[in-house]
Design brief:
Largest sheet: 4 strands, mixed
Number of helices: 4
Structural class: alpha+beta
Strand content: 15-25%
Strand order of the largest sheet: 1-2-4-3
Helix content: 25-40%
Order of helices and strands: HEHEHEHE
Number of strands: 4
Length: about 120
């Protein structure tokens, strides 16, 4: 299921309903949010712990290494895991963002956290 929603509310409601997600993705182009807008990044948002509690495989993809490092750091702090950003392999893009940035020569990163 592909879903577009106001995510902070959706994640809180899904967690309250006892949902467990199998797989979920976050896609970000560079350079949003700007460095001075840390609170707008999901890993700095108050709902981030709820997102992680939904379980399954969470994969964040972006073309900005700093964002990938920040995201991995936040996951590791909350879960006591030791995940690291990785280069996204050459699989078929799963979003228009990914296709656009790969085709323009950007390096793409992924951070994967799994409770499976």
């Amino acid at each position: 299921v592909w879903l577009r929603a106001e995510l902070a509310s959706f994640w809180r409601l899904a967690l309250a309903a006892g949902w467990r997600l199998d797989r979920h993705y976050l896609f970000y182009p560079n350079p949003w949010p700007k460095p001075g807008q840390l609170q707008r990044r999901w890993h700095a948002h108050p709902v981030f712990p709820d997102l992680l509690r939904l379980g399954g495989r969470l994969e964040m993809r972006c073309n900005w290494s700093v964002y990938a490092q920040e995201f991995a750091f936040a996951v590791n702090r909350l879960t006591r895991s030791a995940i690291k950003p990785a280069l996204l392999d050459k699989t078929e893009p799963v979003s228009a963002f990914e296709r656009k940035y790969r085709n323009s020569g950007h390096v793409l990163y992924q951070v994967v956290y799994s409770t499976c």
